[in-house]
Structure formats: structure tokens, C-alpha cells
Amino acid sequence: MISFIIRRILIMIPMMIVISMICFFIIELQPGDYVSTLLENPRISGNMIIELRAQLGLDKPGVVRYWLWVKGIVTKGDFGYSFAHNRPVGDLIWERMGWTVALALTTIVFQWAIGIPLGIFSARHPYSFMDYLLTFLAFLGLSIPEFFLALILIFWMLSMGATSIGGLFSAQFVGAPWSFAKIIDLFQHIWLPIVVVGIGGFGGLMRVMRGNTLDTLGSPFVSALRARGLSEKTVRKHAIKNALNPMVSIAGMELPNVFSGTIIVAIVLGVPTMGPFFYEALLSHDDYLIMTFLMFIAFITQIGNLLADFILAFIDPRIRMS
Amino acid sequence: MIAVNHLQSYFKTEDGLVKAVDDISFELRPNEVLALVGESGCGKSVTALTVMGLLHRNKTVLKGEILFNDKSLLDLPPEAYRLIRGEKIGMIFQEPMSAFDPLYTVGYQMLEVLKAHTNLSIEKQKQRAVHWLKNVGIPEAEKRFNQYPHEMSGGMLQRVMIAMVLMLQPEVLIADEPTTALDVTIQAQVLGLIRNLQKNEGTSVLFITHDLGVVAEIADRVHVMYAGKIVEKGTVSQVFHHPLHPYTIGLLTSRVVKGKKGKELPFIRGYVPRAYEFPEGCRFHPRCPRKLPRCEHDNPPEISLETENCVACWLYEKGESA
Amino acid sequence: MKDSQTSARVRRAFFKHKLGMVGLVILAILYLTILFADVISPYNYLETHRNFEHVPPSRIRWKHEDEWKGPFVYGVKKVRDPETLAVSYEEDQTKIYPIYWFTQGETYKFLGLWETDFHLFGLGKEAKGFLFLFGADRFGRDVFSRILQGGRVSLTAGLIGTFISVVIGAIIGALSGYFGGWIDTLIQRFIEILRSFPRIPLWLTLALILPPGWPSTWVYLGIVVVLAFIGWMGVARVVRGMTLSLREKEFVIASRIVGQSNFKIITKHLLPNMMTYLVVVATLSIPGMILGESAISFLGLGIKEPMTSWGLLLKQAQSLSEIEAHPWLMLPGIFIMVSVLSFNFVGDALRDALDPYRTVEKV
User: Fold this and answer.
1) What is the total count of domains within chain B?
2) What is the mean pLDDT of each successive set of 10 residues along chain C, which is 363 residues long?
3) A230: nearest CB among B54, B98, B112
4) B215 and B235 belong to one structural domain
5) CATH at residue B182
6) ipTM metric
7) In three state form, how does the secondary structure of B128-182 look?
8) How many beta-carbon contacts under 8 Å exist across A and C?
9) What is the pTM of this model?
10) Are strands B204-209 and B2-13 parallel, antiparallel or unpaired?
11) How far is C87 from chain A (nearest CA, A)?
12) Which of A28, A238, A246, B307 is most open to solvent, judged by the fewest CB atoms within 10 Å of its CB?
């Protein structure tokens, strides 16, 4: 098992290198750079542009810039400079990473907390009215664009007379120190993005769990367990544990989707995570910010997959021993 | 010990009512090995599952009677049925690998069974389990006790399954093709094991197979099934030396036997009808070389002959003639 | 090798899926509607109407002062609140505009070919009032007409994108599965890396590659390519899996012994066997594409004016104040939802019919 862990970690290194190349290359393909957005400003002359470019190092060819960027990361932990915000990219991302990851994780927990029990329930009462209803709701959740659901919920809250919608805190709590009231306020705000993204995702989870559980309940080993005269409760315990097995890898693969959803919902709701930040950076061609963010998300996903693989090896002896 | 009277197990499917077992009656006597033989799809496995009460209640229609020591099984509430399973009637399956939960050690699963059926302490449970592992001829029993199913070969796992079932010392053992998935040499070992254990414990065995060679080796009496019905009953020596039903005769002559090299291999023309398209009258008549006109519309009843065997065939309407 | 019993069974399974049938009907209606979008909309979707910005949806009335008059709308008066200076609209019951069927209206080019002014219904050319079924937007453009027009983009981008991604994915997947070895490992690793990027940020970043100067039709094609860029990976994975299992089957080995070229084996033997599964995969991918296009356009990085899509239309409803003041701007979202839902139902029905053993999922 130790060798398994080490091997996986070692593979991540070349993967991250390729990821960094992809991130850089995609931005390179974009026409123009940060300085070109300034071109629209009539007060900035052509010469100033050239000077600015040289100053920011944007006049060097792509390969050189890539090399400098990677070198900076590996040697100094310097992820580049944000032109729009005039600060190192690393700091900016670091400040917002906490909320971004917290939101994503909470959303995953929410999806699982709803999806798995409902999936098991559906499998135990297949083709019942509740089963059809849940399936329909799952489809509905899958089909609503997350940003649209956010809009609808905003509309609903407005019509109910809510005042502070969006963001993480009401105006008065934004800079304030932590207090009990602030925590309550947080919950009053954070449920919105979690629910919006959660509803979109729980459907798929629920249906897969339902399918897995149905398959397991119909499989020969469940019949064999019953033949031994074990109680239904015990049989169920075995069935569910086996059905959950493949879900662990699925959770790992779902990670990028959750990030995707939280980003766009964060943009709509103005939640101060990386989402709106990334969006602004895109619009203003704040290249290093964009690249680093993409790279970071890909990295977190890799870590997530790694963790999922470890958990799987932990619970499934067949994998542990191969 | 087990008396089955006019048992019918029908499955409700989208294609209609599938009459997997259609009015069969037989007895399993104390301290004997009764073989139920037939090709795949004839209903022998369904018979076993029906006796064990493992069929899905909502998807099946059961008629007739199953008496276990003069107690009707089909009238039993689920909880009472569960207590009989394993404790009084045990079952071993064809695929040992799919009769165990891959996520738990075999030892854990054996203890689980003991916990459900006995009041022994954990140490005593472990003692009994290991004792039986040794009984079935597993070397290094304590080590194997802590292993996972996938760490063992098919043959060894089959022995574990036998140990797990017999350690509760049931009165009846139902063996559903336990050697079909094993190599021939292992097959011989497992058969020998079952035969010895049967003699030592006095268990009655209902042995289900499609392999006539196995029947000859292990059984005292044999019943031949075809298309959901029993077509011939008798002792092994009677049925093998003087087969009565044309199907039985066909089965016996179509075996690959020493000494017939170079001759064409006889076979029964036609194929086994699918369970929702059984022909009218005698189910075998489309393939029968000795068909009478009556066979096409009347299903022959069981006709008992003086020598204690029975056959369901119009050829014997007036006693043994052939 | 389909015998009549199999295709009958497939058809039976498909039509038995009630939701799938509902979805099919809805999609048929939607696609017919967008085909005749210009005819069905009462107005030209690009036409602005000054003095009618942000008009709420017109109420169709049948009785005026207890007198039956047939369907009509009242005129609308702009009212400015003296204190807040906010603009709102009030019904002007003095002006009555009956609704006619098969009437003349603003001109347009039917299917881009010939110019006409025939509309399915409307107020007629002379009417000074407006029939805004779904209200008007910031420029006084009829939202209903724009939604119908936007449907053309939203409902076709997904189809074309899926087609492209299926083609690319099938080729790459087949190559990967058939040749195995380092080609396979390379492609698989590459796919794994690409899949660790969350889709929407990746799409947004790719969408920015399209030069800002491009005309809107080119942008449309570019967006389609961007969508396909991520969609092919799912197809490739499925095709690879199936190729791997088919590769070892006897008929393939037989073809190799006979000396058929690899290309022929792949195209004549492997791919046709996967057709039904490819259809299932394709249909299941379409919802993702439609949602993707909406998201990209919603954030302003997708479809460009004068073209419009449902996502782009929703962009106008992005701020809290807009939602509060002009909620009808959110209506395009319902269309996205309904069409995606319908595709999901149809996809599910197709999957039950063509792939009951869930081969696609296992791969």
C-alpha cells in the first residue's frame, strides 16, 4: 500500500507539469493581453504601451515567459503578478481559497447527505410513486442551469421581502470580528449557493446510488447472505456497503463539476470566492491570475482523486492487496 | 423430511407468466442424497430457491405445498422462515466467489452466521468455525480464517462455504451445482467431502446438477426435470441402467462414453423450449423420437411402476411396457 | 445483425417510456417552433421600440366593459413617478388593439432567403400598441420574439457540438482502444488531465480565444467548437472501452488473419457495432452542451449580438435590481430547462431501449 501511495504521488509531478503547460498555452492562444485592454483608453499612447509591455515582461516570447513563470513557482513560490490588482497572484488566491474550498466541500457533503439516503430509499422501493417522484426531481435538478436556479431563488427571496441577498454576509458583518450573530448571518447567506449547486448535483448521485443498490440487492451474494438466515438488517448493511464502493471514485470525479457550479453561482450571487475573481480576471486579461487559478483547481482535483483512491483502497480489500 | 406437493413457482414478467416450476411433487427422505438433474432452464435451481424461500415475494406466484418435517413452509411468516434458513436447511451455491461479501474476511462472515443462529460466546464461535474449516480439509485453518474471499481459490472457497453451512448442522443441505464451476480434480475432492460429511452428520442432501457423472457418484435417488416438470424418478441404479422416459434415455445416450470412438455422437434433436413458450401436451413431445398422438395435447401424469420408480410419459400408461 | 424481434423489442421499450414520449413531443414542438420562429413571433427580434422599454408582459383580454370583443390588448401609457422618477406602465383602456391571426407585421427574411412580413398572429401593421407576450427588454424589443429566435442558437449549437464531439471522440477512442500500448496510455493520461479542469472555467477561458472582432456567426461556430472540445472526452472513453472488448472477439481476430487493414477493421467491424451505443452517448451529451452554451453566453463570453441565445437573453436578468423590477426577463431560463429536461428524458428512454444492460455506463 505504501508503494501505491508513493507511486501515485510521483505521477502527479509530471501531470502537474503538463497541467501548467496547458494552462499557460490556453491563455497564450487568447488574442491580446492585459496591456491591449488598455489600448481602448485614448489617453494611453502607443509608446506607453510598448513601455508598459516591456516593464511587465510581456514582450518576451511565450516559451520564455512560461519558463520564467514555472521557475518562479518552483523556486520562490511566486505565481506571477496580477496586473489588475497590483499584487502577487499567490496572495490573492490564498485569501480566497479558503472560502472557495469550504464552499465546495460543504456542497459535496450536502449532495451526499441528500443523494445517498434517497438513492437507497429508491432502491428499496423501486417503481413506487416516491421512486418516480424522486427520479423526476433528480432529472429536474440535472436540467436546471445552476445560474438560472440562483436567479429564481433570488426572485423568490425578493418577493418574500428578504433584504440582503447574495454574498456571504450582510453589509454590517462584512468586516466585523466573528461572533455568534455573524455565524447566524453566514448561515443565512451561505445556504443559497450550497442549495443551488447541491440541487443540481444530487440527482446524478441519487440515481447512481439507486442503480448500484438495486444491482447489489439483486446480486447472487445477497441471495447467499439470505440463505444463511441472516436478518434483513444485516443483509442490507452488506448490500449498502458494497453499493457505496463505486461511489467513492465517483465522488472524486465529481469534484471538478462542483467547482464549476460553485464558480458560476458565486459570480451570480457575488460570493467572495475565487469565482467572481476569476471572471473579472478573464475579462481583463489578467493572465497570471487566470493561469494560476486554473492550475490550482486542477491540482485540487488531482488531490481529491488521490484521496478518493486512498479511501477506496482502505475500504476495499481487493484493491488494497493488488 | 421435506415433502413437496404440487409446487408451482411462476414468475411475473413483462412477457407474461413464466412457469419455471410447474406442478412438481417429490420427497427428500432422511439420510439420503437425492439428485435433481436436468439441463439449464429446466427449473431445478428455482426449485431450490423456492424451498429456501429466497424468491422475491412480489414477483412470484407460489402454489402448492412444501412440508418440512410436516410443517408447511409456504405459510410461514418471513421471520420464522429466516430462522429455518441456515439452521435447519442450508444451501451452497454454484459460484463460491459470489456467495461471499468481498469486503469482509471469511472468518467475519462465519462468525456473523453463528451470531445469528446460536448463543455461543465469540471465542466459542471462533472455535467452532475453525474446527469446521479443518473438517472440510482446509490447511492452516486459523490463517485462512482471517483472509478475504478473493485471496482463495475457487475450490478452497467452496470448501469454506460448505463449512459455513454445515457448522450449523442443518438437517437438510441443498447443493445447487456446487461443483460446476470447479476443475474436474477439485470437483472430485469436493464431492468426496460432501459425501463424507453427509454420512457423518446424517444430513439429507438435495443435490442439483446437470452432470450425470456427478449424479452417479454421489446420489442415492435421482429425479429428472425437464421444462419445469419432473419426468422420471427412481434410484440411481434404476434410472441409469433402465431409463424409462425418452428424455432420460436421450440424456444418457448422448454422453461421451469410452469405447464408442469413431461413432457419431447421438443427441436429442431440437432445443429446450423457453419458459414462456412451453408446448401443449407433453412438453417433450416436439423432440421425442417415440411420440404418440396423445402426447400432443395431454400432459402425462406421474405413473408409478411396481419397482418404485415413476415416469411421466404416455408410453407407460399401462405399466412397464416400453 | 438485428432480427425483427430485437428491433420490435427496442421500439417497444422506447415507446413504453412515458417521460421519453413526453420529451420527444416537447422537442418536436420546440424544433418546429424555432424553424418557423420568424413567422410565429409577432415582431422582428431585432426591432427596437422606443418608448416601450421594459414593458411588462401584455395581458390578453377578452371582454371590454362586460362586452365580448375577442382577444385584444389595451394600449400602454408610460407613467413617471413624480418622486422617484421611476418609470412604470399603466394600461390605457381607451386604446383597444384586437389580435389578429395571419396578419402582417414587421418584415424579416424567412430562413434568410426571401423577405416577407407574414406573421402567425399580431396586432396588424397599423396598430400603435404592442403585443408583448413576454414583455419587452431594455431596448423595447419583444422578449417573446427574441426567445423564439434565441432558440435557434440554443437548440442547434448543442446538436452540432455533440456531433463534432462524437466524431472526434469516436476516432480517438477507437485508436486508443485498438492500438493500445503507449498511444493508449498517452491519450488516456491526456484525457485524465483535461478532466481535472472544471468545465465552466475551462470553457470560459477557451471562449476568450475567439478574437473579439469576429462576426457573430463565426462566434457561434467558435463556441460550438469550444463545447465540443470538452465533450469528446466522454465519448472517447466509452468508445475505447468498447473497442477493447470487441478487439478480442473472434470476428476481429479472424479479420486480422485474413489480412484486412487496421483501418478497414475499425471502420467496417468495430464502429458499426458501437453505433447504437454511440447514439445513446450522443443523446446523453446534448443536455450538457446546451447548458454549457447557456452558461458561457450568460457570462457574456459566448454568443454575440445581433445573434441571440437563451443564455445571452438571461444575461439581462443578472442583477438583483433587474430581477426585482423586470422579472419576465428570466423567462428564457424556463425554455432552457424544458429543452434540457426533454433531452434528458428522451436520452433515458433511448438508453433503456438500446442499452438495457448499461454497457455504456460500465465502460
Assistant:
1) 2
2) 61 77 91 86 82 82 76 80 77 77 78 79 77 84 89 91 91 84 88 87 88 86 89 86 79 75 72 81 89 91 88 86 83 93 89 75 53
3) B112
4) no
5) 3.40.50.300
6) 0.86
7) HHHHHHHHCCCCCHHHHHCCCHHHCCHHHHHHHHHHHHHCCCCCEEEEECCCCCC
8) 132
9) 0.82
10) unpaired
11) 20
12) B307
